[in-house]
Design brief:
Layout: H1 11-16, E1 21-22, E2 27-33, E3 61-66, E4 68-77, H2 78-81, H3 102-124, H4 142-145, E5 150-152, H5 160-172, E6 180-184, H6 186-199, E7 208-210, E8 213-219, E9 224-229, E10 238-242, E11 247-250, E12 260-263, E13 270-282, E14 290-293
């Protein structure tokens, strides 16, 4: 129910839900980072080869994230259970607006709320690793995770050349650029489309659906990237994400699972349940992603196709 295919309210979860990983620890490893030494042209004579070169060491750093708790309650009074025959809203003949099962209806809506909470956390979450049971573990979201492949736009609108620059940054950092998604808001999508029209840059003729999400491609000089409308996008920013390395990490409770429904003790005339789960974000190596900040938040309409003319004397 969390990773609901086609739920445009949680597109990020829909994209990563099929690659769920599991942990039995609050903290989990994302991977290791290290810098590969640059090669050079050897200049070694036969006599010089009799002595081995001085050794150098490649230092590795290990990155991690944490899971955090998500929970909610569901309560149904006995009065509500016994009054399902009463129609709500406009009382018109043949109305069947009431759900067949009130508990299922309440659970589905609470799960949708939890999904939105997780979606926002996976985008905007600020990392914190608790050191006591009074502190809160907070998983690191994509905005905080991306610190190296970053471009400041200087209040320019999102455009094709900014995308080309961020793709180059990812490529220069040895990230994979073969399957990148531009995760932006509605203004960003319109701005990219307008810029592509002005420049005559090829875009996908029709939207395609991936995991029920509307996607359009744009062809850059060095790569083809996919454009999608995300949720909880910070004003003036756009993300460039490689979903091949992103997945949710769940921390199940032994014997119960994760995001399970559990009855609570009675305190009155009704039934009460709790929903409980623990989940965190594995975003892989941050060098596989990029971030554009300082974008204009206003849409600038295209002025038509740009045409460049040159004289016969132009070399």
């Amino acid at each position: 129910m969390l990773f609901n295919k086609g739920n445009v309210r949680t597109p990020f979860l829909s994209m990563i839900g099929g690659k769920t990983g599991y942990t039995n620890s609050v903290e989990f490893v994302l991977g290791q980072e290290y810098a590969t030494e640059e090669g050079d042209i050897p200049n070694i004579s036969e006599s010089g080869s009799l002595k081995a070169p001085d050794a150098s060491y490649i230092t590795r750093s290990q990155n991690s994230n944490v899971t955090q708790i998500f929970m909610d309650s569901v309560a149904i009074s006995y009065a509500k259970m016994s009054n399902m025959g009463t129609l709500a809203g406009v009382n018109i003949a043949g109305q069947t607006a009431n759900p067949q099962n009130e508990l299922d209806f309440q659970i589905a809506n609470k799960m949708a709320k939890l999904g939105r909470s997780i979606e926002k956390t996976f985008m905007q979450g600020k990392y914190n690793k608790a050191t006591t049971d009074k502190e809160v573990n907070k998983t690191r979201g994509m905005y905080e995770a991306i610190t190296k492949n970053v471009i400041e736009a200087g209040e320019k609108p999102l455009n094709i050349w900014l995308l080309e620059q961020i793709v180059k940054k990812i490529s220069d950092a040895n990230g994979d650029t073969s399957n990148l998604y531009v995760w932006t808001n509605n203004t960003g999508i319109k701005q990219l489309h307008g810029d592509a029209v002005e420049l005559g840059v090829p875009m996908g003729e029709a939207f395609k659906n991936e995991y029920g999400i509307r996607i359009q491609d744009v062809v850059l000089p060095t790569a083809t990237v996919h454009i999608a409308e995300g949720q909880f996008i910070t004003d003036g920013t756009a993300l460039v994400l490689n979903f091949d390395v992103i997945r949710p990490i769940e921390q199940p409770v032994p014997g119960k699972g994760n995001f399970f429904l559990e009855p609570l003790s009675k305190t009155g005339a009704g039934e009460k349940y709790q929903l409980f789960g623990q989940i965190g974000l594995d975003y892989g190596n941050e060098l596989y992603h990029g971030k554009i900040t300082g974008l204009s938040t206003e849409f600038t309409p295209p002025k038509g196709r740009k045409v460049v003319t040159v004289s016969e004397d132009t070399p």
